[in-house]
Every structure is written in C-alpha cells, then in structure tokens.
Amino acid sequence: MGGSADPPEGTPEGGPGGGEEEYRSVVFDESFIRAARLQEFSAQERMADHAPAVRRRAPVRRGLSRQALVLVLLIAVAFVTAIYMGVRHPYQGPAESGPPAEPLRMTVIPLAPEGEVPGASDTDHLYASSPAAQFRIGAEGIPLPAARRTAHFSDGQVTNALSIAKDYIVRSSLYPEVLTGDQIRPVRVLLDPDQLDQFDQSFAHPAADGRHAPTGWLVRFDSSQAQLADRSIRVQGTLQAAETDASTLEVTADHTFVYALRAVAAGTGEKAEAAVKAAEASLFTVRRELHFRFDREDLRLHQTQLMVSYVQAGPLSCAEDSTNRLHPLLAGQTAKEGGPAGTDPYATGGATALCGSLATGSQPKV
Questions:
Q1: How far from each other are the two terminal CA atoms of the chain, in whole angstroms?
Q2: pLDDT at 226 over 90
Q3: What is the edge-to-edge ordering of all strands in the sheet holding 248-263?
Q4: What pLDDT sits at residue 94?
Q5: Model confidence pLDDT, tens digit, residues 111-151
Q6: How confident is the model at residue 240 (pLDDT cuts 50, 70, 90)?
Q7: Mapping DSSP to helix (H, G, I), strand (E, B) and coil, where does residue 261 land?
Q8: Cα angle at 203 between 338 and 228, to 5 degrees?
Q9: How do strand 282-294 and strand 305-314 relate by DSSP bridges?
C-alpha cells in the first residue's frame, strides 16, 4: 500500500513517461552543439545587460579536407610531369601514320660465270682467296652508323630506324632457315601491314613482273641443289638514314653477302653424307641494295616499308628462273648461257642488264 504506482488510467498524455519516449531518438552531441549558429547567453549575462537571449556565433572556419589536398597534389604532379616530358623529349609527338605504303619495286639480276666455277674443300681458303677476304662475319658486317637527329626526328628515332633495317637485312640474308628452308615468317613480321598482301602474293604466285619475286624480298636457295658449307657468311656494306619530310625517315642499305655452298647429295645414309663432305665448296655472292621507309607508327611497332630491292647474284645461269629461288652454279659447273659484258657485284656501280656475266675477278683464285 505504501509503494508508488501508476494511475489506474495509465500515464497522462504528454507526461514524463510518454514524452521521454518521443524525444529519446534525438541526441545533441558535442559536434552538433559546436556547429550551432545561435548560442544562448548565460543567466548572469542576461542580468548584467538587457541583451537578447541568444547571440549569433561566427561560422567555424575549416581547412581543406584530406581528399582535397590529395587531389591538388596529384594535379600538381601530373602538371610537372607533363612539362618535364615535353622538355626531355621535344621530338616525341603523337604516333603519325604517313600515306599507305607503296608496293615494293624489285629487280633481280643473275650473273653468269665466264667459265667453270672454282671450288675447294676448305671454305676458309676460298674466302681468303676472294675479294671477301677482309669481310666480317654475319651481323658484324652490318654495323650501325652514328645516328644524328634530323629536323623532325630525334637521335633515338633515327637509331631505331637503322636498327629495324638491320634486323630485316639479317633475317632475310643470314638466317639459315630462310636461306635454305621455307621459313618466311621471320621476315614477314617486320613489314608494314600495307605490304603484307604483296608479300603473300609473291610467295603464293611468284612472277617475274618486278613486284612478286620472292628473291626480291629475301635470299633463298634451291635446297634440293645447294646447302650451306659454312654458316660463317661474309658481309660488308653500309647503312645511311635521312629525313624525307616531317613524318618520314628513309634508310638506304647496300651490302654484299658471300656464301660458301656445297652440292646436296642424292639419297640418304652414310654414303650420301660422305659424298657431301667430299664435295668441293664454292662461293656464291649476293649484292643487295634495299631502300626502307619509316613513319612514326612503323618506328613504334618495329616494322618497315621496303620500297626498293635491287639484287645481283651469281654464279647463276641466265637460263634458270631466279624469281622464286636462286639456283647457284656450284664447284665445277658452267653456265648454259652467257650474258652481256661482265658485271662485278663487288663494284659500287649498279648494273642495268636483266642478266649479266660474273666478272672473273670476283671469283676466288684457287
């Protein structure tokens, strides 16, 4: 009887019980109070002065947020980097593609020997007794010249063009799988896409039309007749780069390659191998003058446009078709047909005949 109890009718509407429940979800934390724009004066302040019951607080000044600082810093770094790259690489512009690549123009001139092809069992002796005695071996005979910037291309871009041209020459003139096999992909992958149709057509349907001769694209022998007697191919020549316009570089290559070849023995087995080893080797000379063109897209993708291919090769017979493969005359063989006055592939002048005679002085003296 002595304890307190709720009225029989329950808690009156608006009383402490119900009202407390109604405002229980409202929380005035410290941050909310500090952010308030109006502040009530204390009782002492109101007694001392007949001022309004509240006063307006000055807005809180906040600094930049962390996210804003990070964003500003990133923008500053990007701006400084852009300025540095512009100063460091003044020649580096957007990848520009020049006009579509022109079809390759090619000339293959077989050189017929005036007599019997000299041979020897020792390939070193053959090289030493020929004009190729001082030639370097393989890619060492294709040194890159000192690259100099042009009006619109940097040192690095000129060097890149020279390197791609050298890569093409090495793959198309020195790779054994290209010379005596059927591999063409090492050469094909270096060509501008605009020339791939012409390249593929040349190997699918060879033609002596100055456009579709496989021997204009690369050096390859009839593997049923000849094989390499020595893989140390002798090479000598030059590379030169020049700017043709604001978007194009050209590289001119002029190299002489000397191969030691030996006949392929018929049949298989030990007797055939012994016959190959006993057969004398002979030298076969190919002079290639190639003109390459590069736009900035070619330089970026490590590819080239081959514009001109001028080839002299011998000893060959003018009666043999040299369009698809070269059919070298080997040690002891003679040409079935002659040709115009002697042409020396070691000379720097260009021949104009479609078939020439191999100068006697260009053969080894054995």
A1: 142
A2: yes
A3: 136-137, 226-245, 248-263, 282-294, 305-314, 105-113, 356-358, 342-343
A4: 45
A5: 999 889 999 999 999 999 999 999 999 999 999 999 889 98
A6: very high
A7: strand
A8: 60
A9: antiparallel
Strands (E), 273-345: 282-294, 305-314, 342-343
- How far apart CA 73 and CA 70 sit, in angstroms, is 5
Nearest to 177 by CA among 189, 166, 185: 185
Q: Please report, to the nearest 10 degrees, the dihedral formed by the alpha carbons of residues 77, 78, 83, 85 taken in order.
A: 110
Residue range 221-245: mean pLDDT, rounded: 94
Q: In the 8-state DSSP scheme, what is residue 335? A: -
Whether the CA torsion 66, 67, 70, 76 is positive or negative: it is: negative
Q: Categorize the per-residue pLDDT at 311 as very low, low, confident or very high, splitting at 50, 70 and 90.
A: very high
CA nearest to 200, candidates 215, 212, 209, 182: 212
Query: Which residues, other chains included, contact 129 with Cβ-Cβ below 8 Å and sequence gap of 6+?
Result: 364, 365, 366
The three-class DSSP label of residue 217 is helix
φ, ψ for residue 75 (rounded to 5)? -65, -40
Q: Is 351 exposed, middle or buried (0-12, 13-18, 19+ CB in 10 A)?
A: buried
Higher pLDDT among residues 28 and 70, named by residue:
70
The model carries a pTM of 0.71
Residues in the chain: 366
Q: What is the pLDDT of residue 188?
A: 98
Q: What distances in angstroms separate CA 199 from CA 53, 75, 185, 318, one per listed residue?
A: 95, 49, 11, 25
Find the farthest-apart pair of alpha carbons in the chain and give their distance in angstroms, rounded: 146
Residue type, 275: A
Tokens of 96: 């520009």
